[in-house]
Amino acid sequence: MSNTSQFTHVKPYNEEESKTTQLSRMFDTISGQYDKFNDLMSLGLARVWRKKALTSLQPYNPKQILDIATGTGDFCIKAFEYLNPDFVNGIDISNKMMEIAKIKAQKLGLGNKTIFEVQDVSNLKFENESFDAVTISFGIRNFEKLDEALLQIHRVLKSGGHLLILEMNEPRNKFMFQLYKIYTRIFVRMTSKYLSTDSLAYNYLTDSMHYFASGKELIQILQNHNFKTVQYKNFSFGVCSLYLVEKIKAEAKAEAKEKKKDNYMTIL
Prior knowledge:
Elements: H1 5-8, H2 19-30, H3 34-42, H4 46-55, E1 64-68, H5 74-82, E2 87-92, H6 95-107, E3 114-118, E4 131-137, H7 146-156, E5 157-168, H8 174-195, H9 199-211, H10 216-224, E6 227-235, E7 240-247, H11 250-267
Parallel strand pairs: 1-2, 1-4, 2-3, 4-5
Antiparallel strand pairs: 5-7, 6-7
Helix pairs in contact: 3-8, 4-5, 8-9
């Protein structure tokens, strides 16, 4: 198993408590303003990115979907608009986020097609191979135990099922990065004070983007956990990235390695 702790060590409040415990408290605190902050952070583009991400799953027609770090349920709800699944399970570590998600789904008549519950991704309660697709929208950088989480996701996905990740990150272009820093350090942090008294929460959301793996680094981590890259895209000058990967069985990976080794020996 790879060591990914270097990407997930950022915590919102202190070094004593676990990251998961702190994030559960943090997201409970800001749950009422979280949707507004997402729009603020992305200049309203998060809605466009979500649509592009979900439509990337259309060719695979997933019917049973698990949405991890579902927050207030936006990605779950949009899945019905673009994918028409039979059922979507949404999980999160914030109970208050789940309450908001449930209300949203019920208002749209999706109460019998969704379930929202508090679960930690590093210890999922679902049976093996339960889902056609797993989605994570703006949440993977919040995982405290990234390796364990990816093992669990691989376990609950059906063979050939897909993991879709949408995540914000710092742009790699130097000019765009300077603009991004000005925007987040001045405008976002100043405006966030009007949304919540918990300024540390918003500092965390921007700081965690700086340290989390993106691009080739994240693709390599996913490959190390037996996922095959299907699609990788950047949006809006690299501020947001989409990763679509497919589950491959560990045995299949081992067989491919052995076959490659045999071919090499034959050439020699």
